[in-house]
Amino acid sequence: MSWFEVILFVLELVIGGCVLFYKRSIDELTKTLYARDQEYEKEKGKYDALNDSLQTILKEFEQMKSAVSLEEQRRHNWIESRNQKLINLIRYSEIVNIGKARLMTALNNESKSELEKLQADINSTIVNLRVDSLTLMGVNPEINDHSVTAFSEAVFLLGNEVLVRISNALSLLESYNKMLNYALTLPDGHEKLKWMQKVQDNKNGLIEMKNDTTYNSQIGYEDKETQYLIYLRKIFGKGIVLKADTDSCRD
Predict the structure, then answer these.
(1) Which of 30-34, 62-66, 128-132, 180-184 has the highest mean pLDDT?
(2) Most buried of 5, 95, 243, 247, CB within 10 angstroms?
(3) Sign of CA dihedral 215, 219, 225, 231
(4) Residue 90 near residue 155, CB atoms below 8 Å
(5) Percent share of the chain, pLDDT over 70
(6) How far is CA 18 from CA 11, 15, 204, in A?
(7) How confident is the model at residue 153 (pLDDT cuts 50, 70, 90)?
(8) Among candidates 93, 113, 98, which has minimal Cα distance to 169?
(9) How far apart are CA 119 and CA 127, in angstroms?
(10) d(CA 156, CA 133)
């Protein structure tokens, strides 16, 4: 074997050794990288699962918060509406009481249009009164003070008494005008005198109504109004405008 062949043989051995050495190293490196990749995927899976759980919890929390906020807003809106309805009772009372003065003016003027306008206003007021009072009593159990019911019924009764008088006044006024117009078409004589007497009777009825300033429903009205105002002072004076429970106000 020549020296050249010896050198080639030695080189082959060196190269073969290197290949075997690096092959083992590469295999170990590959195994190490694969193990790290598996570990990474495992940890990533844990992180993703944890993240999903956190997102679910956050979503449920936001939903709960939104539900609470919506309920609080509804509660706040109802309390505001309730307070407005309580104040409205005073306004209805004033409309009805002013209606008595308006009735006297319409009777003095013998004005059918004024009576009809007053009738429409009182009718509308009574309807609104009943809606507000029934809503307060039927929907909101917090409004269980007797003064609210008593005052609401007092305003309702007085309003209806004013309506009855308006209706009677319209009837008398219409009859008075019809009878007067008819009587004026008759020739002088017994028949005309008879109809003129009927006209005077209607006129007397209007005069009696103008002079009658006493209302049966007015008896005890001011006391009920006073008790109701005391109730309102307890509510608004103690700062319960934005609170849910008003039961303590009755103590």
Answers:
(1) 128-132
(2) 95
(3) negative
(4) no
(5) 62
(6) 10, 5, 138
(7) very high
(8) 113
(9) 12
(10) 10
**Looking at the chain, how many residues does it have?**
251
In the block, tokens 């117009």 appear at 181
Mean pLDDT in residue range 63-75:
64
Q: Hey, what are 8's tokens?
A: 């080639």
CB-based contact 210:168 (threshold 8 Å): no
Residue bearing tokens 């509804």: 74
Burial 135-171, CB ≥16 within 10 A → b, else e = ebeeebebbebebbbbbbebbbbbbebbbebbeebbe
Beta carbons within 10 angstroms of residue 95's beta carbon: 20
